From TrEMBL:
GO terms of molecular function: ATP binding; ATP hydrolysis activity
Domain of life from the UniProt record: Archaea
Assigned protein family: Belongs to the CDC6/cdc18 family.
UniProt keywords, alphabetically: ATP-binding, DNA replication, Nucleotide-binding
Every AAA+ ATPase domain range: 39-173
Gene3D superfamilies: 1.10.8.60, P-loop containing nucleotide triphosphate hydrolases (3.40.50.300)
GO biological process assignments: DNA replication
Protein known as: AAA family ATPase
SMART domains the UniProt entry points to: AAA
A matching Pfam family: AAA_22
């Protein structure tokens, strides 16, 4: 049934990316100076979860690297690496530049120096940029003469409200690409491309693809997870075809896999906060902070914790109710 399992993975970048042609053109224009050996214009990609923000960022950078040997790219997901040192080390490691560096015991300036010393231009893709513990990380990267920032985020207004005046000035003129959720026809087309790349012909019909697209409600990550879960069950049951009934049978598993994937992305502090809420089912803010401080080896500041909890809520890993001292954090049902 499967010809290429990579096509069923959420981080797979297809060779052709449809339904985002205008956004691709905008980002390609923004990064074009890099092809001539100059720093490109910084850019943001905004949009809801599952709109393809990370995929389009990787796709455009891949296109550029195919034509330019002197371009290096690093990727960091701030959900996994929020602190300044962690984020910079992740960029260096992803770019293949950390061969003699260790994250523990190394100052963040060493990672910045490694990026600065790269021959040619460096593109830093910062995913979930709004989760960074310290936005000075962006300032430090912006100041490097060979770095172009490509930043991925859910909400433009919220992000810029958190920026100080200097950052608002730095990035106010940056290119801003805004993505909407996919329509059902677009979602069906995306799934069709994944099927063509990864499954044998005849495995799934158009009606079932459209059914999955409708269930996904414009979220490409959900659509791919629903398809992958149905394929996994078909392999276990030795079925030759993916049907709508099979999709229904495996929908709960697919959504559980999506949550598990999100949890795996969390760094130590975010995961501890998540687990404390999961264990209790519901916790008041004061109790949650007290339990966190009791169990964390190196607790982050309370303001940082509140930021992390807000991000966990944005991605549906926890629910919030109330405000201030009466705020409650709840395990989603």
């Amino acid at each position: 049934m499967i010809t290429d399992a990579r096509a069923l993975q959420p981080d797979f970048v297809p060779t052709e990316l449809h339904h985002r042609e205008g956004e691709i053109d905008a980002l390609t224009t923004t990064l074009r100076p890099i092809a001539d050996g100059f720093k490109g214009d910084d850019a943001f990609i905004f949009g809801p979860s599952g709109a393809g923000k990370t995929t389009i960022a990787r796709y455009v950078v891949d296109l550029l690297q195919q034509e330019n040997l002197d371009t290096t790219t690093g990727y960091v997901n701030a959900m996994s690496n929020s602190t300044r040192a962690d984020a910079l080390y992740a960029l260096v490691r992803d770019a293949g530049l950390a061969y003699d560096l260790r994250k523990e015991g190394s100052h963040a300036s060493r990672f910045l120096s490694r990026i600065k010393d790269v021959d040619g231009q460096f593109i830093a893709i910062v995913d979930e940029v709004h989760v960074l513990e310290d936005y000075d990380t962006l300032q430090s990267l912006w100041e490097l003469p060979n770095v172009t920032l490509l930043m991925v985020c859910l909400d433009e207004e919220e992000l810029f409200a958190e920026f100080d005046q200097q950052l608002q000035s730095r990035f106010g003129s940056a290119r801003k690409v805004r993505l909407d959720r996919y329509g059902t026809d677009e979602m069906t087309s995306i799934l069709r491309g994944r099927v063509k790349a990864g499954l044998r012909p005849g495995t799934i019909d158009e009606a079932t693809l459209a059914y999955i697209a409708d269930l996904a409600a414009g979220d490409a990550r959900a659509g791919i997870a629903l398809l992958r879960s149905a394929v996994d069950r078909a392999l276990v049951d030795e079925r030759d075809e993916i049907t709508q009934a099979l999709v229904d049978e495996t929908e709960a598993d697919a959504r559980a896999d999506m949550e598990a994937h999100r949890v795996r992305e969390l760094d130590t502090d975010k995961r501890l906060l998540y687990e404390l809420v999961q264990e209790a089912g519901e916790l008041g803010a004061g109790t949650l902070h007290a339990r966190y401080e009791d169990r964390a080896q190196d607790p982050v500041a309370r303001s940082t914790r509140r930021k992390y909890l807000g991000r966990l809520s944005e991605y549906g890993l926890i629910d919030e109710r109330g405000a201030g001292r009466g705020k409650q954090y709840i395990q989603p049902t």
